[in-house]
């Protein structure tokens, strides 16, 4: 019976892995160009210089290294370097401190888990 259960679970898992991730019906189809603004709060500021996003700023300041990160982990990851790494840790420490003040307990779980825990 245990063997049958394991086989059934494996079969179910295999079938679930190929199911598409279908978005809700009210999600607009398409890319960024089709995004709709739902709500704006306050006025959008204007600047007398070209605006750069956090990715461009981080690259220009040597804080992000996407090329090395992609070799290690694939696309869409960043490696934080120098002040970028220090800023990341400062933010982590700040929020840990704030959460501790609110009574939360910090937990560091094992890096590896058994399949049944997923």
From TrEMBL:
Keywords: Cytoplasm, Ligase, Protein biosynthesis
InterPro entries assigned: aa-tRNA-synth_II/BPL/LPL
Reaction catalysis annotation: tRNA(Ser) + L-serine + ATP = L-seryl-tRNA(Ser) + AMP + diphosphate + H(+); tRNA(Sec) + L-serine + ATP = L-seryl-tRNA(Sec) + AMP + diphosphate + H(+)
The UniProt record lists the keyword Ligase: yes
UniProt pathway annotation: Aminoacyl-tRNA biosynthesis; selenocysteinyl-tRNA(Sec) biosynthesis; L-seryl-tRNA(Sec) from L-serine and tRNA(Sec): step 1/1
Origin: domain of life: Bacteria
An example molecular function term from Gene Ontology annotations: serine-tRNA ligase activity
One Gene Ontology biological process: translation
UniProt keyword annotation of Cytoplasm present: yes
Family: Belongs to the class-II aminoacyl-tRNA synthetase family. Type-1 seryl-tRNA synthetase subfamily.
Protein name: Seryl-tRNA(Ser/Sec) synthetase
Species in which this protein is naturally found: candidate division WS6 bacterium GW2011_GWF1_36_8
């Amino acid at each position: 019976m245990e063997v049958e259960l394991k086989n059934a679970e494996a079969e179910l898992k295999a079938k679930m892995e190929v199911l598409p991730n279908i978005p809700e019906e009210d999600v607009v189809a398409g890319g960024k160009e089709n995004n709709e603004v739902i709500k704006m709060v306050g006025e959008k500021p204007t600047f007398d210089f070209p605006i750069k996003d956090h990715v461009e700023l981080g690259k220009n300041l040597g804080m992000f290294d996407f090329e090395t990160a992609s070799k290690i982990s694939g696309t869409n990851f960043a490696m934080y370097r120098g002040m970028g790494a220090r800023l990341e840790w400062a933010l982590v420490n700040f929020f840990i401190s704030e959460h501790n003040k609110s009574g939360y307990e910090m937990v560091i779980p094992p890096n590896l888990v058994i399949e049944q825990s997923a």
